[in-house]
Amino acid sequence: MTHETADFEVPSDEEIARTATLDDIETVAARLGLGPDDIEPYGSNKAKLRQEAVDAARERGRNGSLVLVTGITPTPKGEGKTVISVGLAQGLARLGEDVAVAVREPSLGPVFGIKGGAAGGGYSQVLPMEDINLHFTGDIHALTAAHNLISAMLDAHVHHGNDLEIDVDQITWRRSLDVNDRALRETVVGLGGSANGPPREDGFGITAASELMAVLCLASDLADLKRRVARIVVATDRDGTPVTVDDIGATGAVSALLRDALRPNLVQTLEGVPAFVHGGPFANIAHGTNTLVADEVGLAHTDYLVTEAGFGADLGAEKFLDIVSREGAAPEAVVVVATVRGLKRHGLDMWPANFDVLATPNPDAVRDGLPNLFHHVSVLRDFGLPVVVAVNRFPDDTDAEVAAILDACATREIPASVSTAHAEGGRGAEELAELVRQQVSSGRADLQLTYDLDDSLREKITAVATHVYGANDVTFSKQAEKDLNRLVEHGFDSLPVCLSKTPYSLSDDASKTGVPTDWTLHVRELYPAAGAGFVVALTGDVMTMPGLPARPAAVDIDVDDDGTIHGLF
Amino acid sequence: MTHETADFEVPSDEEIARTATLDDIETVAARLGLGPDDIEPYGSNKAKLRQEAVDAARERGRNGSLVLVTGITPTPKGEGKTVISVGLAQGLARLGEDVAVAVREPSLGPVFGIKGGAAGGGYSQVLPMEDINLHFTGDIHALTAAHNLISAMLDAHVHHGNDLEIDVDQITWRRSLDVNDRALRETVVGLGGSANGPPREDGFGITAASELMAVLCLASDLADLKRRVARIVVATDRDGTPVTVDDIGATGAVSALLRDALRPNLVQTLEGVPAFVHGGPFANIAHGTNTLVADEVGLAHTDYLVTEAGFGADLGAEKFLDIVSREGAAPEAVVVVATVRGLKRHGLDMWPANFDVLATPNPDAVRDGLPNLFHHVSVLRDFGLPVVVAVNRFPDDTDAEVAAILDACATREIPASVSTAHAEGGRGAEELAELVRQQVSSGRADLQLTYDLDDSLREKITAVATHVYGANDVTFSKQAEKDLNRLVEHGFDSLPVCLSKTPYSLSDDASKTGVPTDWTLHVRELYPAAGAGFVVALTGDVMTMPGLPARPAAVDIDVDDDGTIHGLF
After folding, report:
1. Is A82 labelled a binding residue?
2. How far is A305 from chain B (nearest CA, A)?
3. Which domains does chain A have, with CATH numbers?
4. Which chain B residues are Cβ-neighbours of A184 within 8 angstroms?
């Protein structure tokens, strides 16, 4: 038993990003078989695909294999799924495969909050980092503008006579901003007299939580986007009937605002692998993965498309499979990312996470945390998919801790590999890439979804809770019972379900680590995300507007007089 | 005397824009002597100048002559200054001059509200129209994000212990959104308990009204932008001392968010003349013209740069000269735009404007309205600048009405020309261009500003009110007197002044047409726009957040499945 750690020192993400040499975006596009006319460059190193190229890719159809990267029940710092996704793509490229990676767009709120930037890290980053973390190609800003246009048209309708007889107390469409701002969580708007009113309670969510983000990520094309936008429910009238975006006349303007946002953004990884960074919905109240359009374009133009789902497999992968794959994009293999510190938290039954303690070598704690990993693996295998475990190795991880994971996986015949993609880029993920390639080549993928759309909403929720989360049963609050009835009444019962739950436990209680047993999922409330095309079931409280800490990351961000930006990571 | 009207039929702006053939943006840049490496293309037809090109232009210094386009006291539909600016630039190009035009960026709020798009019109448009009117290169979105980051950091500071002892009732930094939304004018934020609070009164302005927009438009470079951002006053502490953006630690992050927005956007007019569309501040609480950086780059690379100022000459041109020209960009000639309908409103002493009545031929009413035009001409001549009158001719204008204006100008020896730039493009503004060229060549420009910075704030305001507006005197409310004292106390008395007043009258009462006499300007309140670098004096009420009408323009906007957008004009 040793406490040796891997011997590598990695410069800061910012330093790596700044000293990287990027290929022209035309060169990157050429790796996908796309010509200069297929892309619309935004500067030298980013582009949006042109509409014609997107249409051609859809016509061409799927060529490559989809690899989904998910993770164990994470710590609040995450397990490093993006690093592994990027590293795996780079590893596959090193093996000579045509590959691309598709990940979510970072949101400005967290960039200035606690988390800092989010585009991978170390030598497995997506570049240009500054652009991707700030305004990028403007997709999220477009969503913010479109979201708030709906709000303005809704309130203007009410103000100007309210022909639709909207019940002012039943306006469910809140406003959106891409910022971490707790002061906007609960507001009153329409104050200042009858010229501005009527006054009513309202609030803001972060743009990533907007249903429009989910719509953008699930729309197959502009026509589908318009259909989805049109049916979004924004309120109910005095009879309790849903009022939609189309009812208030906003479908066309909103879709026009989102036209360009629907076209995938192309950038590159540090090693020049084509990367789609496109869309970024929440993984609890929404489905938590990049746009379907990006996946489709990637699959038409590569042998392998690596993509990721948010949070742990219970939230992100379940939704990817039961919602997104149901629309067409089914993976051939799944990678489950685990970290020593993440497993240690489960082994130590620790909540909240104390990262100093988690940095202390403790192979036994890692071992005690493994059931969480194996639960996720088992669930994913029940989905009919081959699984590979990727241990995302950190500099402080000891050999003994890493061995504890690998040994246990070997015993259970789960392919597993240690990845040093952060410290070494694709080279640190070659073995992982080889394992993934073997699993894909096996052709064993045979996707079995958790429920049928014909099942009742109650049955669907129960299936996810028991099969995926490991709950004994599900209870519904009085409100949830009412909501269920109303959803059936309004014809939303044939939609898939999207369960909102804490990401920090398999259960609905963040303090329960490992694999909680003998527990019942409690559903508090349900509502239709009719545009996205699912019913959201809320369990615990959901925070759709983060706040800033006492010392936000923004304080350390600066820009030199020559335009160099510091402190984004 | 006839009631004949000009015989032309102009397709819709949208139709003209859609059928236009655009040059590649590299070709447009080449007309300015800029190479492919000087620009960062955003697609085929828009670009941002690279930082190096901006720096090189500043080093190169001014080469061309600046022509400022302003107008009479307008109707709410405007006098068509952008059409004349674009048309004049096209006219100068037809005369063989190297020319560019610089105009303001349209704001999304009005695009979806009453006004529709704003990038000129007819055959004097700036293209690509759809992009310019929607997200364009993201500058306004960047401002929105930066503005609200300040708000979030401010409220987070108060929430987390309020070390700066900010007086929660004296937070002057409201939030911003680029939307017309009356429900956001007056709000309460921070509700929902101590996790979100403290609760306080707040409100949103449209992004164009943000002081950050004025800062962006007046900053000479990134270093200057940072200095200006740092000193923006957001609140006062419990001792009444100003609290700045820098105090709350937001300077760097805000400047990083605005880095790219500071670089000018290059597009083209319908006839291929290089056009800078960059920045768009209000013309009452701010100075109402595009960025200084765009003017400087344009003047370094052309013989003529045509630019416009907001509203009538009393508001827009006065501020351009007393604020912007003071920073360096002084015009060689000024064009005052007048319309038959605008003068008719003054002649008929009509408020609010009834556009049906204004469309009825009435040369006498036009003649009776001329004093308003001559007041503006006289004020601009007092500024030491040669003036040309441009009659922006509409299809319904009769020859007799147009002649009434030209004859009166001839009598007073004011160079004047009828422009049909809307209907005929540059061809319809060639005579105007020739007149402007003559005035510029005369070399008579000798700018005399309205006041010295050493004058007291009271003297500066009085000088603008009496010399420019024609008031007898100025009175100050009790609040304004307090504000004046506080501004002196905090060292803001050496700044220029920016008077906010109705644009629909030379006086502070929108119902007073023509040239009101025997009136006193009443100043209600003053505050420092310390980042922009001026003191704002409010007279009447200022609306910084427009509302949507009962049937907003957005209702008629749509996008086809192939991406063609309809209804923007």
Report:
1. yes
2. 26
3. 13-138+261-441 (3.40.50.300), 139-258 (3.30.1510.10), 457-539 (3.10.410.10)
4. 175, 189
Q: Is B138 helix (H, G, I), strand (E, B) or coil?
A: coil
Under an 8 A CB cutoff, do B135 and A138 touch? yes
| β-strand partners of B184 | none
Half-sphere exposure of A376 (CA within 13 A, CB side): 33
Q: Are A290 and A106 in contact (CB under 8 A)?
A: no
Q: What is the DSSP string of B434-484?
A: HHHHHHHHHT------S--TTS-HHHHHHHIIIIII--SEEEE-HHHHHHH
Q: State the pairing for strand pair A333-338/A387-392.
A: parallel
Separation CA A453–CA A534 (nearest Å): 11
What element of type H or E holds B212? Answer: helix B211-218
B1 interfaces chain A, CB cutoff of 8 Å: no
Query: Would you say A319 is a known binding-site residue?
Result: no
pLDDT reported for residue B1: 37
- Residue that is written with structure tokens 């827009």 in the block: B316
Q: Taking CB atoms and an 8 Å cut-off, how many pairs form between chains A and B?
A: 252
Q: How far apart are alpha carbons A111 and A546 in whole angstroms?
A: 12
Tens of pLDDT, residues A465-505: 999 999 999 999 999 999 999 999 999 999 999 999 999 99
Instruction: With CB atoms and an 8 Å threshold, state whether A558 touches B253.
Output: yes
Structure tokens at A185: 């969580």
Cβ of residue B564 closer than 8 Å to a chain A Cβ:
no
B211 vs B38: CA distance, rounded Å: 29
Cβ atoms of A177 and A203 within 8 Å: the answer is no
Residue B182: its chain A contacts at CB < 8 A? 155-156, 159, 190, 195-196
Q: Determine the Cα–Cα distance for residues B559 and A221; give it in Å rounded to an integer.
A: 12
Cβ neighbours of residue A303 under 8 Å, at least 6 residues apart? A63, A64, A65, A97, A98, A99
Query: Do B214 and A188 meet the contact criterion of CB atoms below 8 Å apart?
Result: no
DSSP letter at B556? Answer: G
Please tell me if residue B259 touches chain A, with a CB cutoff of 8 Å.
Answer: yes
Res B47 pLDDT > 70: yes
**A199 → chain B, closest CA residue:** B183
**DSSP element (H, E) containing A425:** none
Q: What is the pTM of this model?
A: 0.96
The interface predicted TM-score (ipTM) is: 0.96
**Cα–Cα nearest to A295, from A311, A277, A282:** A277
Q: How far A106 CA lies from chain B's nearest CA (Å)?
A: 14
How far, in Å, are A46, A84, A219, A435 from residue A290 at the CA level? 17, 16, 11, 24
Q: Are B40 and A44 in contact (CB under 8 A)?
A: yes
Distance from CA of A516 to the nearest CA of B (A): 29
**Contact status, residue A267 vs residue A275, Cβ threshold 8 Å:** yes
* Four-CA torsion A474, A478, A480, A484, nearest 10 degrees: 100
User: What are the φ/ψ torsions at residue A232 (nearest 5 degrees)?
Assistant: -60, 135
* Orientation of helix B399-411 relative to helix B340-347, angle to 10°: 80
As a whole number of angstroms, the distance between CA B537 and CA B521 comes to 11
- What are the distances in angstroms from CA B255 to CA A112, A199, A227, B150, B270? 13, 35, 39, 11, 34
- Segment B484-530, tens digit of pLDDT: 999 999 999 999 999 999 999 999 999 999 999 999 999 999 999 99
The enclosing H or E element of B106 equals: none
Q: At what angle do helices A251-258 and A211-218 cross, to 10 degrees?
A: 70
Closest CA to B338 of B315, B367, B364: B367
Q: Which residue of A has its CA nearest to B156?
A: A548
State the Cα–Cα distance between residues A306 and A331, nearest whole angstrom: 9
